[in-house]
Amino acid sequence: MDNLKIVLSEKLGEKTTSYSDELVKDMLDRIGHPDCELRDDLIFTTFAKGLHQEEFRVDQFLYLANAVLDRDLLRVGLGQVGDSTLTRSFTSLLVFLLLTYHYEEKSLYFGILEKRHLDYFKIVGQSYLSLEKDLRAFSESYGWVHAPAHFADYYAIFLCYEGLEKEEWENFLDQLELFFKREKHVFTAGESERLAQLIYRPYLKGQLPHRVLVDWLRNLEFSKLEATDYMAFLNFSHFLSAVYIEMTNCQQLDDDLKEVIYRLVTIWE
User: Fold this and answer.
1) What gap in Å lies between CA 42 and CA 140, rounded to an integer?
2) pTM, two decimal places
3) Are residues 111 and 96 both part of a single domain?
4) Which of 55, 71, 138, 174 is such that its CA lies 20 to 30 A from the CA of 233?
5) What sections of the chain are H helices per DSSP?
6) CA separation for the pair 203, 103 (Å, rounded)
7) Which of 25, 47, 181 is nearest to 109 (CA)?
8) Are residues 45 and 142 in the same domain?
9) Helical (H) or strand (E) element with 76
10) Same domain for 230 and 186
11) Residues 34, 144 contacting (CB under 8 angstroms)
């Protein structure tokens, strides 16, 4: 591991570089390593820099996409709370990078991902929020965990370009609602705001139908029976506020959306 740290530190210090297949494999094998310096500062940063500067070959880009799919890295230990969360969380960030450059027309990697990759990303995204139980933002032992936030990063960009059928949107929004309702502790590291991009980004791209969004928000109800219900509502109100701000900034917040959002954020008044 120390040798890998040395190699990656040197690579990051080089203006331009290349990566052996063995090094690419080693990085992916350790994408969820509990050492936050190796995982965050070196491996993920190397993937980000290398893809941005097109230092990975096209076949290495495909290797990463194939390995994520074949090893089902986005769902390693899904439903459990433990070390495995780091693998699926930081794989989500890698997939975010892969999708970003797959959709970037000027990128070396434009259009490289295959239908089977995109189908896998969609399948995972459609059930992820109902299965993820590890909602830790930060661990004293591991550093950042942030699984739902990292998931939102990748799935938001997917939804911007691929979209969903009406029924699929309705099922996904129902899962998003239940995700917020079951969490009884206030998010403290921007999770609600990161999850909000699952709504406003595809909406602003024309992928999330206006009527589907309005109907979902109009039918939402939050329990007021227990003190912990307020915690769930507070998380959702932060989520809605982020949606409201982004749509307002883009001048895409019409009267119907204003009405349903105002109703929801004033439930506890």
Assistant:
1) 19
2) 0.97
3) yes
4) 138
5) 2-13, 21-29, 36, 45-52, 58-70, 84-103, 115-131, 147-161, 166-182, 191-204, 210-219, 227-249, 255-265
6) 18
7) 47
8) yes
9) none
10) yes
11) no
Q: Are 148 and 33 part of one and the same domain? A: yes
Beta-carbon contacts of residue 87 (< 8 Å; ≥ 6 apart): 31, 32, 73, 76, 77
Q: Where residue 203 falls among pLDDT bands split at 50, 70, 90?
A: very high
Task: Report the distance separating Cα 174 and Cα 126, nearest Å.
Answer: 11
Measured CA to CA, the distance from residue 97 to residue 91 in angstroms comes to 10
Average pLDDT of the chain?
A: 96
User: 85-125: per-residue pLDDT in tens?
Assistant: 999 999 999 999 999 999 999 999 999 999 999 999 999 99
Is 129:92 a contact under the CB 8 Å cutoff?
no
Q: Are the C-beta atoms of residues 51 and 97 closer than 8 Å to each other?
A: yes
Measured distance CA(150)–CA(145) in Å, rounded:
9
Specify the number of domains making up the chain. Answer: 2
**Which tokens go with 124?**
């995972």
The pair of three-digit structure tokens given for residue 125, joined into one six-digit string: 């995204």
Nearest 5 degrees, angle CA 30-CA 51-CA 11?
65
